[in-house]
């Protein structure tokens, strides 16, 4: 979730006076980071993953599944450094009180086959250890992208009263939010800066008895007057007819995801890897689609991304280029006299520009064809610090955002040794990729300090550790293949933006086409762009060899090195065969031979005997769905065969994945 500081946070009306101070010092901190690490080279290809779980209370007698909001004691219980070190696990709080973020304690070695095969074991350990520390015998840890009935009646355990002071939501209580003071402050300050609550409207799936397109959701409590100014917004136009309306940060930041971070050998290589993954990001989102239900309704989309985008959108009506709601100001609560610009996107969205210097890469200036506004003062400052114009533009674009949470005790920092101000800006720009500079201590001789890293962020979390390991391993190997073979994946960023929209559609993994560059030879040349299905991108077409082929080439190139890790050729062959089960899974899913998680969930609901063809996911349907997914989490044989199909199930058993 980003930077967690201890201390006393300012409200938005206090912190807005410190925004310029934070940005000025953040730029100085960034400068010192670059000066320290710009000459690092030959860093190892370390990498890591981050998975997020939900704690769900399963009441078998009442047939009711609820989010557990009183199990967050696990963070204190699992904070023992000895346990983390011995088990190679690390746990971190997330936005939701019902959420647990878990990572490996140490990074994986991207040059080691054994480490790729260790990922699932480590994920299983994280899940099992956290489950062990839950006190409620009916609580289950599940890696679920969205909880189906968040925001409906009585969806938390224990029960909590809807409508707290930070979100002022019509649907969710304050108690879903992490107790750390940063999180309710972040929630409140986004609302205060914006000048109104966030408004998330997701298209409703249309079934036989679904309400009409011109009808507002009848479950919205339009007459509530607990917070009169905020409560009125739904009826003033914030809620759209024919949509699923949500009004709180928790609907987005209460979603779970899978992220991976790779360390490149040096700065230039990290910039190239970032660029190469830009158009991979929407494909990864589509390929991992797992979220067809929001606030108890089937949605006419398969993923969470735009929900989170709306959930943290602190832009004022003027910045968004829309009319304010009645009685609301166009410029929200921005400090009077501050210059205000139009900002095309939320601070949680897709990336806007390539990072590599066009004079020294495959990049062309014409490819950066999106409106990507910048903080002009930050841009000039970074140029004066010696940043090239492309890199300066990247960070100056991040600096159009205000810091949302500022702690009184952290206003003044030593910019040569601390980087909280920079991370305050960096960590609240939640984009499909994150370019992660080292700290001021990461000088070339300090190899124990992390170097230049790239984080791939759009993937949805999957139900099983096997799937999450497979996605993590595949995209890390793809990144390694990119670094080995240096394909030219550059195309106009506007087409990547269109791909992000496409990735949201129902069954985009099998039904839609994505813009993709097919002349990927390692030379600078005009892009030949075709529209390809996910199957064609991954498996290849007459114009492009396919991402799976690229990954297999990387595996072949590493085989001689990897074989030295094993005492016999038989052991090595078995290990290589096990790795290729991950690749096979990616192949089966991207070809449509096994369904996406989103399709599996949608079909379960639609075929449920209690579903009324009205797009509503009731308590009983939700319980049965989660009961099925818990069985899958535990690798119950019949459920595994139903979900993965007989061929892959055989491989999972043969190689002892389950």
Automatic annotation (TrEMBL):
It is an enzyme of class 6 (ligase). Belongs to the glutamate--cysteine ligase type 3 family. This is Glutamate--cysteine ligase. InterPro entries: GCS, Gln_synth/guanido_kin_cat_dom. PANTHER family: GLUTAMATE CYSTEINE LIGASE, GLUTAMATE--CYSTEINE LIGASE CATALYTIC SUBUNIT. Its EC number is 6.3.2.2. It catalyses: L-cysteine + L-glutamate + ATP = gamma-L-glutamyl-L-cysteine + ADP + phosphate + H(+). Pathway: Sulfur metabolism; glutathione biosynthesis; glutathione from L-cysteine and L-glutamate: step 1/2. Pfam families: GCS. GO terms for cellular component: cytoplasm. It comes from Komagataella phaffii (strain GS115 / ATCC 20864). One of its GO terms (biological process) is glutathione biosynthetic process. GO terms for molecular function: ATP binding; glutamate-cysteine ligase activity. Keywords: ATP-binding, Glutathione biosynthesis, Ligase, Nucleotide-binding.
């Amino acid at each position: 979730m980003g930077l967690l500081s201890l201390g006393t946070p300012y409200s938005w009306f206090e912190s807005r006076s410190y925004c310029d101070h934070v940005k000025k010092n953040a730029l100085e901190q960034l400068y010192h980071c670059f000066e320290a690490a710009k000459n690092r080279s030959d860093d190892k290809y370390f990498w890591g993953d981050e998975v997020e779980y939900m704690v769900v209370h399963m009441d078998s007698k009442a047939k009711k599944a609820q989010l557990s909001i009183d199990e967050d004691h696990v963070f204190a219980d699992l904070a023992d450094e000895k346990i983390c070190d011995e088990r190679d696990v690390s746990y971190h709080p997330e936005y939701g009180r019902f959420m647990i973020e878990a990572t490996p304690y140490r990074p994986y070695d991207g040059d080691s086959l054994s480490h790729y095969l260790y990922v699932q074991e480590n994920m299983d350990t994280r899940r099992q250890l956290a489950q062990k520390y839950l006190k409620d015998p009916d609580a289950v840890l599940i890696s679920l992208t969205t909880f189906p009935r968040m925001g409906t009646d009585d969806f938390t355990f224990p029960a909590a009263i809807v409508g707290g002071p930070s979100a002022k939501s019509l649907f969710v209580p304050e108690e879903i939010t992490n107790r750390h003071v940063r999180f309710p402050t972040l929630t409140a300050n986004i609302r205060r800066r914006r000048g109104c609550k966030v408004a998330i409207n997701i298209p409703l799936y249309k079934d036989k008895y679904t309400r009409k397109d011109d009808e507002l959701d009848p479950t919205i409590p339009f007459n509530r007057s607990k917070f009169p100014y905020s409560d009125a917004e739904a009826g003033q136009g914030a809620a759209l007819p024919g949509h699923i309306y949500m009004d709180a940060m928790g609907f987005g930041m209460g979603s779970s995801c899978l992220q991976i971070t790779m360390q490149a050998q040096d700065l230039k290589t990290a910039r190239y890897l970032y660029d190469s993954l830009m158009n991979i990001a929407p494909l990864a989102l589509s390929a991992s689609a797992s979220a067809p239900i929001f606030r108890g309704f089937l949605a006419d989309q398969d993923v969470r991304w735009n929900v989170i985008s709306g959930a943290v959108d602190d832009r004022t009506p003027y910045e968004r280029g829309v009319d304010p709601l009645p009685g609301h100001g166009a410029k929200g609560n921005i400090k009077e006299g501050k210059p205000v610009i139009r900002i095309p996107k939320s601070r949680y969205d897709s990336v806007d520009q390539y990072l590599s210097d066009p004079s020294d890469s495959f990049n062309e200036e014409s490819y950066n064809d999106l409106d990507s506004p910048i903080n002009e003062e930050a841009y000039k400052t970074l140029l004066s610090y010696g940043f090239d114009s492309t890199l300066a533009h990247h960070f100056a674009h991040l600096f159009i955002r205000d810091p949302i949470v500022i702690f009184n005790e952290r206003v003044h920092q030593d910019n040569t040794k601390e980087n909280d101000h920079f991370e305050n800006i960096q960590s609240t720009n939640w984009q499909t990729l994150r370019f992660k500079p080292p700290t001021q201590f990461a000088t070339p001789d300090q190899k124990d300090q992390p170097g230049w890293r790239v984080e791939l962020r759009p993937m949805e979390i999957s139900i099983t550790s096997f799937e999450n390991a497979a996605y993590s391993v595949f995209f890390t190997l793809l990144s390694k293949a990119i670094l080995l073979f240096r394909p030219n994946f550059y195309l106009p960023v506007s087409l990547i933006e269109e791909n992000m929209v496409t990735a949201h559609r129902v069954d985009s993994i099998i039904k839609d086409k994505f813009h993709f560059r097919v002349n990927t030879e390692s030379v600078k040349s005009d892009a030949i762009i075709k529209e390809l299905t996910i199957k064609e991108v991954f498996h290849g077409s007459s114009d492009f060899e396919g991402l799976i082929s690229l990954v297999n080439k990387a595996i072949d190139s590493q085989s001689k090195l990897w074989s030295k890790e094993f005492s016999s050729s038989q052991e090595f062959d078995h290990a290589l065969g096990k790795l290729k089960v991950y690749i096979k899974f990616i192949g089966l899913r991207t070809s449509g031979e096994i369904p996406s998680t989103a399709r599996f969930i949608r079909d379960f609901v639609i075929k449920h005997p209690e579903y009324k063809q009205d797009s509503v996911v009731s308590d009983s349907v939700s319980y049965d769905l989660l009961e099925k997914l818990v069985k899958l989490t535990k690798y119950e044989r019949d459920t595994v065969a139903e979900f993965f199909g007989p061929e892959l199930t055989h491989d999972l058993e043969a190689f002892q994945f389950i």
